[in-house]
């Protein structure tokens, strides 16, 4: 249990750091009310978790420890539902109803699609 905790924690640390860097770079590059940084990391993270689970289901390509590190740790730290919820709230509070609806629905739908694509991609290899 302690080993799993450490593995997930290190993955989460690296995922959170990567989220900060990617999100910050995108937000600086695209000045907008729309939270492009959080949106992008959530879609990329959804694709990655689909790929990682797809690889782990193919056989002996990934150990249980690596799956824990990459999915629970890295992807869990990289993506962020709490930031998605907060960004949605801020758009709603600012009466940006069209952006709110687009952001919330596209984040969910594209995230789901990205997981599907990641898993499908690995099955095709």
Automatic annotation (TrEMBL):
Does the record bear GTP-binding in its keywords?
A: no
Its membrane topology is listed as: Multi-pass membrane protein
Q: Which GO terms describe its biological process?
A: cellular detoxification of fluoride
InterPro entries documented for this protein: FluC
Reactions that this protein is recorded to catalyse = fluoride(in) = fluoride(out)
**Assigned keywords, A-Z:** Cell inner membrane, Cell membrane, Ion channel, Ion transport, Membrane, Metal-binding, Sodium, Transmembrane, Transmembrane helix, Transport
> Gene Ontology cellular component?
plasma membrane
Where does it live in the cell?
Cell membrane
Q: Which residues bind Na(+)?
A: 76, 79
Tell me which Pfam families the record gives. CRCB (PF02537)
Q: Where are the transmembrane segments?
A: 34-55, 67-85, 97-117
Q: How is its activity regulated?
A: Na(+) is not transported, but it plays an essential structural role and its presence is essential for fluoride channel function.
Q: What does this protein do?
A: Fluoride-specific ion channel. Important for reducing fluoride concentration in the cell, thus reducing its toxicity.
Q: Which GO terms describe its molecular function?
A: fluoride channel activity; metal ion binding
Its recorded name reads: Fluoride-specific ion channel FluC
Q: Which family does it belong to?
A: Belongs to the fluoride channel Fluc/FEX (TC 1.A.43) family.
């Amino acid at each position: 249990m302690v080993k799993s905790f450490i593995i997930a924690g290190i993955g989460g640390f690296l995922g959170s750091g990567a989220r900060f860097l990617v999100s910050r770079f995108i937000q600086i590059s695209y000045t907008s009310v729309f939270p492009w940084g959080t949106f992008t990391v959530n879609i990329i993270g959804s694709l990655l978790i689909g790929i990682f689970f797809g690889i782990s289901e193919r056989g002996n390509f990934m150990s249980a420890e690596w799956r824990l590190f990459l999915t629970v740790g890295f992807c869990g730290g990289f993506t962020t539902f709490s930031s998605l919820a907060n960004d949605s709230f801020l758009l709603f509070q600012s009466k940006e109803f069209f952006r709110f609806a687009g952001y919330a629905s596209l984040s969910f739908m594209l995230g789901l699609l990205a997981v599907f694509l990641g898993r499908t991609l690995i099955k095709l290899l």
